[in-house]
TrEMBL record, chain A:
<dbReference type="InterPro" id="IPR029046">
    <property type="entry name" value="LolA/LolB/LppX"/>
</dbReference>
<dbReference type="InterPro" id="IPR011220">
    <property type="entry name" value="UCP028205"/>
</dbReference>
<dbReference type="Pfam" id="PF17131">
    <property type="entry name" value="LolA_like"/>
</dbReference>
<feature type="domain" description="Uncharacterized protein TP-0789">
    <location>
        <begin position="82"/>
        <end position="258"/>
    </location>
</feature>
<dbReference type="InterPro" id="IPR033399">
    <property type="entry name" value="TP_0789-like"/>
</dbReference>
<keyword id="KW-0449">Lipoprotein</keyword>
<keyword id="KW-0732">Signal</keyword>
<protein>
    <submittedName>
        <fullName>Outer membrane lipoprotein-sorting protein</fullName>
    </submittedName>
</protein>
<feature type="signal peptide">
    <location>
        <begin position="1"/>
        <end position="30"/>
    </location>
</feature>
From TrEMBL, chain B:
<feature type="compositionally biased region" description="Low complexity">
    <location>
        <begin position="34"/>
        <end position="62"/>
    </location>
</feature>
<feature type="region of interest" description="Disordered">
    <location>
        <begin position="29"/>
        <end position="70"/>
    </location>
</feature>
<feature type="signal peptide">
    <location>
        <begin position="1"/>
        <end position="23"/>
    </location>
</feature>
<keyword id="KW-0732">Signal</keyword>
<protein>
    <submittedName>
        <fullName>Uncharacterized protein</fullName>
    </submittedName>
</protein>
C-alpha cells in the first residue's frame, strides 16, 4: 500500500483526549474494555518519553514501491503524546521534521528553515507518511466496549484467542468512526485492528506482529497495514531501537525546530 | 470467438495469479516478500546491549508487569540514531526559455549543486551549512567564468547547546519567520537575499536566499519559547570576497546592511492555536508583529500574520530625495519620511474533503496581502503612466519591491492549488498573484514527476499578465518555460 499521507494526518489527530461518551448499557464490559485497551496501548507505545526508529515499506501487488525511514521522538502529555518525526530517508526528504502537538501540526524543511502549518487531512511529505509513525493512544480517542472473544489468525498466521473490542469515536477529531480491535486474552498484546470511516467503509486493516523485548516489554515491532479499498496496497512498518529519552517540552514548538539536533 | 474466449480466460488467470495472497475480508494478513534492507540501527536494549531474544507472546507480560527499573535504565540514546545523518546534496540541471516583453526568446541552461544540512560535533556543538555552486550559460552571450559561476554561502553557522532547552547559533543563518504562503510580513530579513529567481513560488524562493550574519539565542521560560538575536551591520568594500567579488562574493553588504535586534516570543496557548509575537529594531527603527494560526476540523487551516514597522514607503525609498519629476513623485507618494507602515497576510489552506474529491489529495490556499508601504490604486495609475525620465523612476520602484520581496500594490490576492499524486506519483501545483487595482498578475504552473527513488523531473511555466506598465505586467520576462532535473544524494 502506498503510504497515504492523509491517513497519517488523520491518525495524527487521533491521539487527542476525548470526551467520555460511555457505552450506555454496558458499564461492566466498558470498564473491562477500557482496561484492556489501556494495557494494549501501553504495549504499543511506552508511556514515557521515548525514541524509536521506524522503517516503512510500501508494497503494490507484492512489489516494494517506496521505502522510508524516520526516527520518532515522543513525549507523553496528558493521555496522549507530543511527537517529532525526523525523516532520515529518502534523500529528498532527509532532515524534514513533522511536529505534532495536540491539533498543531507543522512540517519543517531544513533547506529553507520554513515551517508550514498543515491540516490533518493535508498531504504531508514527499514519501514519508503513515499516521502510525506518530505515537498515539487509542484510549484517548475512543470509547471501548468488549464484544466477546474470538480466535483469529494473527500477523504470523497463527491462531490467537483474542478479546474483540468495539471502539467508537469519542471526539470529532478522532480519525475513524469505529475500530474493531483484537487483543490477546493472555497478554493484552494488540493483534489486529480494522478501521472504519464515518460512512462505514473499511479503510484499513492492521496486524501487529514480531514481538520483541523493547524497553523491557514485549512489543510488536512490525505492523502490516492493508488498504481497505485496495488489498494490493500494503504498508509494512518496522520499528527498532526503542529507547528512553528525556525530551524537553520546548522541542515541540515550531520555533525550536531550527535548533533540533539528534 | 473461441480464441477470444481463451485469451480472456488466460488474461484473467494471469491477472489473478499476479495478485498477492490477500483475502478481501482481511481474515489473513497479506503474504509479502521481504523488503530490501534499510539503514536502521540494530535493536538495542535500554542498557545498550543487543535486544533481548524474541519472547513468547502467550507468556510475556505487558508493560505493567515488566520488571521494575528495566525500562528506564541508564543509557539514553543508546542506539545510534539514523537521524544523526543530516546532510543532503542536490544536483540540478535546468533549461530555460524566457520570452521578454518584446517577444524575444532567450534560452539558457543552469547547473547547480546544493549541499545543506548539519553536522554535530559531540553532544553540544554543531555546524549548520547550506552551500550552493551554480553556473549559468545563456544563448547568444559569451560564457565568462568570472560572471557565470558562483558559490553561495547561504548558511554557515555554529550552534552550541547550553542545555537541552537553550541553544546559541552564530554565523550566517537563514532566520525565517511567518506562517503565510504567499507573503510573510514578519520575515524581516528577506530584503536583498535572493541568489536566484527562477521561480515565483515563495516556497521555492525560501530555498534560494542568503542568510544573515547573526548571533541568536533560544531558550524556554516556563512554557514560553523565547528567541533573541542581533544582526550586526557589516561594512565592506565592493569587489571583495565579503561583498560581490567574482565567483565567491559573500554578499554581506546585501544581508547585513544595518544593525538589527530582534526578539520572538512563542507562548503555549492550547493544543490548536499557534502564536508567535516579535519585535524588531532595525537601524533604530522599531517594528512589532505577530503570527497566529489554527485549524478548523480536519481540513482547514486559518492563519494571519501582521507587522507594523517604522520605515520608508517603497516609492520614497526608491526615489530618494530627487529622482523623478515632481508630478510623478507626488503621484506615487514619494518624498515622505519614515512613518509607521502595516503589512498583513490573512489566509486559509483548505484540504478538500473526501466527500468532494474522494481519495485525491487536493488543497487550496487563498490569501489577502496588505502593504501600506506599497502603492494605492491611484499611485499605481501614476506608475503606469510614467513617461520619459519618469520611466526610470518607475523602474526603480519596481526594483525596490522586488529586492524587498514584498507586494508593490497595497492590496493583493494570492492563491495556490496543489494536487498531489495528480498522475501516478506526480504532483501538480498552480499559483497566482493578482492585483485588483490594475488587473495584473502572475501565474505559475508546476509539474513534478519522480524519477526513481531520488530523481525528480520538474516542468514549470510562468506567465505575467496585464498591461506592460502594470504592477506584474511590467515584469521584463513575460513568460518562462523551464525543465529541471534534480537528483538528491
Amino acid at each position: 500500500m502506498k503510504l497515504h499521507r492523509r491517513e497519517f494526518a488523520q491518525l495524527l489527530l487521533g491521539g487527542l483526549g476525548a470526551a467520555g461518551l460511555a457505552s450506555v448499557g454496558m458499564p461492566a464490559f466498558a470498564a473491562d474494555a477500557g482496561t484492556i485497551l489501556r494495557e494494549a496501548d501501553a504495549i504499543r507505545n511506552p508511556q514515557t518519553s521515548f525514541v524509536v526508529d521506524v522503517a516503512l515499506a510500501n508494497y503494490d501487488r507484492g512489489r516494494v514501491t517506496e521505502q522510508t525511514t524516520v526516527t520518532t521522538y515522543s513525549r507523553p502529555v496528558g493521555a496522549q503524546f507530543q511527537t517529532l518525526v525526523h525523516i532520515n530517508s529518502p534523500a529528498a526528504d532527509r532532515g524534514k521534521i513533522l511536529l505534532r502537538n495536540g491539533n498543531i501540526l507543522w512540517l519543517y524543511d531544513p533547506a529553507s528553515k520554513a515551517s508550514v502549518r498543515i491540516s490533518p487531512r493535508q498531504r504531508l511529505l514527499g514519501n514519508a507518511s503513515n499516521g502510525d509513525v506518530v505515537s498515539s493512544n487509542l484510549v484517548g480517542d475512543y470509547n471501548a466496549a468488549l464484544n466477546g472473544e474470538e480466535t483469529i489468525v494473527d500477523g504470523d498466521r497463527q491462531n490467537r484467542n483474542c478479546h474483540k473490542l468495539q471502539l467508537t469515536q469519542a471526539s470529532q477529531s478522532a480519525p475513524y468512526s469505529a475500530i474493531e480491535f483484537w487483543v490477546d486474552t493472555a497478554s493484552n498484546q494488540p493483534v489486529k485492528g480494522k478501521y472504519f470511516t464515518q460512512s462505514g467503509k473499511l479503510i484499513k486493516v492492521a496486524w501487529y506482529r514480531k514481538l520483541k523485548n523493547q524497553m523491557g516489554v514485549s512489543r510488536p515491532t512490525e505492523i502490516v497495514i492493508a488498504d481497505g479499498f485496495d488489498p494490493n496496497k500494503v504498508t509494512v512498518m518496522s520499528m527498532s531501537g526503542f529507547r528512553a529519552k528525556t525530551i524537553p517540552e520546548s522541542w515541540f514548538n515550531k520555533e525550536w525546530l531550527p535548533n533540533f539536533s539528534t | 470467438m473461441k480464441r477470444l474466449f481463451i485469451c480472456s480466460v488466460a488474461a484473467t488467470l494471469a491477472l489473478a495469479l499476479a495478485q498477492p495472497v490477500s483475502a478481501d475480508d482481511f481474515d489473513l494478513p497479506p503474504d509479502l516478500p521481504a523488503a530490501p534492507a534499510q539503514s536502521l540501527p540494530p535493536d538495542v536494549a535500554p542498557d545498550g546491549a543487543l535486544a533481548a531474544p524474541d519472547t513468547d507472546p502467550a507468556t510475556t507480560p505487558g508493560e505493567f508487569s515488566a520488571p521494575p527499573g528495566v525500562e528506564f535504565a541508564s543509557a539514553e540514546d543508546a542506539a545510534p540514531s539514523a537521524a544523526g545523518r543530516n546532510a543532503t546534496l542536490v544536483l540540478e540541471a535546468r533549461a530555460f526559455a524566457n520570452r521578454d516583453l518584446d517577444g524575444n526568446t532567450t534560452n539558457a541552461l543552469r547547473f547547480q549543486a546544493h549541499y545543506f544540512g548539519a553536522r554535530d560535533f559531540g553532544g553540544r556543538t554543531g555546524l549548520i551549512f547550506n552551500l550552493r555552486a551554480r553556473t549559468f550559460i545563456e544563448e547568444n552571450r559569451s560564457y565568462r567564468f568570472a560572471d557565470d559561476f558562483n558559490v553561495d554561502v547561504q548558511e554557515l553557522a555554529l550552534r552550541y547547546a547550553l542545555s537541552p532547552e537553550t541553544s546559541l547559533q552564530f554565523g550566517r543563518i537563514n532566520i525565517r519567520n511567518g506562517v503565510a504562503s504567499g507573503f510573510n510580513p514578519t520575515d524581516w530579513f528577506k530584503d536583498g537575499s535572493l541568489v536566484v529567481t527562477d521561480s515565483a513560488a515563495p516556497a521555492d524562493r525560501r530555498n534560494e536566499r542568503l542568510g544573515v550574519v547573526a548571533l541568536t539565542g533560544t531558550t524556554t521560560l516556563g512554557q514560553t519559547l523565547m528567541q533573541i538575536g542581533y544582526r550586526p551591520q557589516i561594512d565592506a568594500d565592493p569587489g571583495t570576497v565579503w561583498t560581490d567579488r567574482d565567483n565567491f562574493g559573500l554578499g554581506l553588504d546585501r544581508t547585513n546592511p544595518s544593525d538589527a535586534w530582534f526578539v520572538k516570543v512563542t507562548p503555549q496557548i492550547g493544543d490548536n492555536l499557534s502564536f508567535t509575537a516579535n519585535a524588531l529594531l532595525l537601524d533604530d527603527d522599531p517594528g512589532i508583529g505577530f503570527e497566529l494560526s489554527g485549524t478548523l476540523g480536519d481540513n482547514l487551516v486559518l492563519y494571519s500574520e501582521m507587522m507594523a514597522q517604522k520605515r520608508l514607503s517603497i516609492a520614497s525609498e526608491a526615489l530618494g530625495a530627487s529622482e523623478g519629476s515632481a508630478a510623478f513623485r507626488d503621484g506615487v507618494g514619494a518624498g515622505q519620511g519614515k512613518d509607521w507602515h502595516y503589512q498583513a497576510a490573512l489566509g486559509l489552506n483548505w484540504a478538500l474533503s473526501q466527500k468532494m474529491v474522494g481519495a485525491r489529495d487536493i488543497s487550496l490556499t487563498m490569501e489577502y496581502h496588505l502593504n501600506t508601504a506599497g502603492l494605492s490604486s491611484s499611485q499605481i495609475d501614476t506608475l503606469s503612466g510614467a513617461q520619459g525620465a519618469d520611466e526610470a523612476a518607475a523602474g526603480a520602484i519596481h526594483g525596490i519591491a522586488n529586492r524587498r520581496q514584498e507586494p508593490l500594490a497595497r492590496n493583493q490576492i494570492f492563491t495556490r492549488l496543489a494536487w498531489n499524486d495528480f498522475w501516478g506519483d506526480s504532483d501538480l501545483s498552480l499559483l497566482g498573484f493578482y492585483v485588483p487595482a490594475d488587473g495584473s498578475g502572475l501565474a505559475q504552473l508546476s509539474f513534478d514527476v519522480p524519477v526513481g527513488d531520488n530523481g525528480n523531473f520538474n516542468l514549470r511555466a510562468i506567465s505575467s499578465f496585464g498591461d506592460s506598465r502594470s504592477v506584474y505586467g511590467a515584469n521584463p520576462t513575460k513568460t518562462s518555460v523551464q525543465m529541471g532535473m534534480t537528483y538528491t544524494f
